[in-house]
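Researcher: Quick test of sequence recovery. Tokens follow.
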């Protein structure tokens, strides 16, 4: 196993164990972790972490913090490094309903950048379960109960089915 892979596993192990659930907020039916809490958690463990946002050539000839598309929407791209391990993430510039915004203004782009930073931190393990729709961190493997409907001749019946959820490696692959 390479040194970088070992380091990535150590980072994932520390950050994926952080329970961010008491710091999440909701907008509509979506949960999110504020970038201020996310960055604070990372700084607790890895104070030398750094990030940057990619800059793009705009058709007007200037450099911008967003990549613009033909339909006049845009996305932002974050690059982060923790102890030599690098991750990148992108995010469309969206409104509060998660719809892409045409001709986004500076506030829209600023908000998207910080959401993208938090999403990039999830690539290191911090709050990754939020993006899977979970409320709390998962351990190496857990059993999840899923409600299913079974139809009988008399009526539909609710049943609980147990499914195993595999552990996810820091590189995003599922452990056997």
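Model:
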């Amino acid at each position: 196993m390479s040194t970088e892979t070992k380091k990535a596993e150590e980072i994932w192990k520390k950050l994926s164990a952080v329970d961010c659930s008491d710091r999440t907020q909701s907008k509509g039916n979506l949960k999110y972790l504020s970038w201020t809490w996310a960055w604070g958690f990372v700084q607790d463990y890895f104070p030398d972490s750094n990030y940057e946002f990619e800059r793009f050539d705009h058709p007007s000839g200037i450099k911008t913090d967003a990549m613009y598309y033909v339909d006049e929407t845009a996305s932002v791209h974050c690059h982060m490094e923790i102890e030599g391990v690098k991750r990148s993430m992108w995010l469309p510039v969206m409104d509060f309903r998660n719809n892409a915004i045409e001709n986004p203004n500076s506030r829209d782009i600023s908000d998207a950048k910080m959401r993208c930073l938090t999403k990039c931190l999830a690539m290191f393990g911090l709050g990754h379960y939020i993006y899977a729709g979970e409320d709390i961190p998962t351990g190496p493997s857990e059993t999840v109960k899923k409600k299913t409907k079974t139809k009988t001749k008399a009526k539909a019946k609710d049943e609980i089915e147990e499914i195993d959820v595999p552990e996810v490696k820091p590189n995003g692959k599922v452990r056997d």
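Confidence is low (pLDDT under 50) at residues 140-176.
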